[in-house]
Amino acid sequence: MKLHDLSPAPGSNKESKRIGRGHGSGQGKTAGKGHKGQWARSGGGVKPGFEGGQTKMAMRIPKRGFNNIFSTEYAIVNLSDLEERFESGAVVDEAAVLDSGLIKKTLSGIKILAKGDITKPLTVKAAKFSNAAKTKIESAGGKAEVVQ
Q1: Is residue 130 within 8 Å of residue 110, measured between CB atoms?
Q2: Separation CA 27–CA 132 (nearest Å)
Q3: CA 119 to chain CA mean position, Å
């Protein structure tokens, strides 16, 4: 194969519409913009959400609830996941959990929940633990360390 043999996949290259090139082209004279009016002008049109002076939809619909911008959201990991992903005696921290693919992002930290059972002694370092998870880890011979 040589450079002159290369060609784009069929249908991937589309001819651009040449507007304003005479009325024989089918897009002459007003160039597809109709006659006069706001949309026919250069730079014309309205901003997104504008409804001609009518109260915007975003302002008309009712708003409920409260969005706390200071809230903390934790990445959740269950004990059953730790049981199947980590070997006995391993140190489980944010980096290890990310590498294992259990979570995509750490958010404000990791919280360990007690879903499932754990039989291996693991040293788990996380931002939060549920009380049940902490007792299960310690009863298996491991350590639950709170890390900020």
Answers
A1: no
A2: 71
A3: 34
